[in-house]
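ok so heres the complex, two chains, lmk if somethin looks off
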Amino acid sequence: MKLFNKAVIIGTGLIGASLGLDLKKRHLVSQITGLSRHQSNARLAKKSGAIDYVASSLDAVNDADLVILATPVNSILEIAFKIAGKIKKECIVIDVGSTKQQIVSKINRVIPNFVGCHPLSGSEKRGVANLAAGIFNNSICIITPTVKTDKKVLSKVSLLWRKLGSKIIILSPEKHDRILAFTSHLPHAVAFSLIGSVPDKFLSLSSGGLKDTTRISASDANLWSEVFLSNRRNILTCLLAFQTRLSVLKLALERKNKKLLMKILSAANKKREKLG
Amino acid sequence: MKLFNKAVIIGTGLIGASLGLDLKKRHLVSQITGLSRHQSNARLAKKSGAIDYVASSLDAVNDADLVILATPVNSILEIAFKIAGKIKKECIVIDVGSTKQQIVSKINRVIPNFVGCHPLSGSEKRGVANLAAGIFNNSICIITPTVKTDKKVLSKVSLLWRKLGSKIIILSPEKHDRILAFTSHLPHAVAFSLIGSVPDKFLSLSSGGLKDTTRISASDANLWSEVFLSNRRNILTCLLAFQTRLSVLKLALERKNKKLLMKILSAANKKREKLG
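and the predicted structre for the whole thing:
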C-alpha cells in the first residue's frame, strides 16, 4: 500500500539510506529521491537500491509528498529552514534526529506539517556503507507531536513507521529529551569519558567488558557533540545523577564497606535484568 | 600430551568447568576431580563432561599434581590456606582470579609452587550452566610470577595455558592489578553506577547503547564486591581519573564549548578504534 507518492530523503547516511531501502521494499512510497552533502553518498545509496534518484539541490523537495530529514541534529534545523519556502502546503516533513525539543519547536514555526520522529535503531556505525534492511522492524520509534500537530498528519506518520515494523511510542518532545538523556545521551557521555581515561598502553590487556562498555564511544564526534549541545540541560542533570552514584560506590570502596558495595551491585544486577 | 596426572578444580563455575572441559578435550591431564560449595554444581559439571569425579572434601587435593582455584577472590585465599597442609610438596597450584597482588603474596607464603593466573575469558554470566568449550582459545592469559617462582613450575604453567590456545602475558602481580584496574575493574564500576542512575520507568526506552554499556552490570555482586575490595587502591586511582574526564566533558557542555566537545569525542573515537 503506497502511503506517499514522492518522497525525498535528505541525508543518505546509515539511517536515511536504511529507511529508503525499507520504504521501497515494503512499497510504501512510489519513488524516492535522495540528497547528500557529499553526492558520492547519494550515488552509493542509489546503487544500493535505497533511493531511485539522486538530486543535486534542495529544490528536489518542490513536489514532494514526504520529506525525511536524516542529517545530524544541527543540519536538520538548517535544512528545515531552507526547504520551508519550497515544499507544497500539504507535504509532510519528518526527521529522525536523536533530540526533539529544539528541533520540533523551531521547525514547527516554519513547517506546520512537521512531525518529530526518533527511531531507536541507530548504532555507533554510520554512513551509507553500513545501511541495512529491516533495522526498523521490531524496533521502537518515538514520535513527538505537539498540541498543534494535525491529527491526520500524525496518524499518517504513525502508520508509516508501523508499516516498517516499528513499535510506536508517542511522547511530547520535552519528555522525549528528558528520558533519552538518561537512556542514550548519558551512556554516550560515560563511554566517551571511560575510554578517555584508560591509558593507551593498557588497551591491549582488555577483555570483553571494556569493549562493550565503550562500543558507542566510536560514535561520530560531530553528530554527538551536536546531540549533547541540543539537549544540554537534561544531560547535565543526568551527569549529576551519575556522578552521585559513582561517588557513593567510591565512598563504599574507600571505607571498605562491603555491605554497601553489595547493596549497590545487587541493585544494579536487578535493574540490568529488566533491560533484557 | 598429558602435562599432569591428577588435577583438582575447586570451584566448578563458568571458568572452572570450562577449564575442565578444555583440559579433558585436549588431553592435558589424566583425570579431573571437581569440588564446589554446592555439590549440585560439581555434579552438573561431571554430567557436562567437565570433570571425572566429584569430591566432597578438600582432602581430594592430597595426591593431586595440579590444583586449580576457581572460586571468587576471597574464597581463593581461604581455600589456599586450607589446602596448604594437605598437598604434595611438588603439587602445582594456580588460580584464575581477577586480582593478583593480594592473592599471590599471601598464598606464596604457604604454597611456594603457587602461580597466579588470570585468563581474560570471563563474562557477566556465571555458573556451570554457562560453561563453554574453547573460551581460552585465542584469548589472553596473564600469568603473574614473582622473583621467587620456580622457573620450571612457571614454564609448566605457561605450557598448560598455551596448550589451551591462550596467548600468555607475563606481568608482576602489582602491574597486573594496576592495569586491570583500568581495563576491567573501572568499566565494571562505571557500568554498575550507570545502570543505577537510570530511573526504572525509563528503561523500556533504551536502545543498544545503554544495553552494551551496562551489560557487565549483570556481573555477580558478591564476586565483584570482592574484586573491588581486593584491588581498592588501584581502582580508586582509576575512578579519580575517570571522574576528572567526566568533569571536563561536563564543563564543555556547561560552557557550550563545541570545540572542546569535539576534541574529547574525536580522541575517544581514535582510542576506541585501537581496541578493535
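quick notes: Chain A has ten helices and eight strands. thats all i got rn
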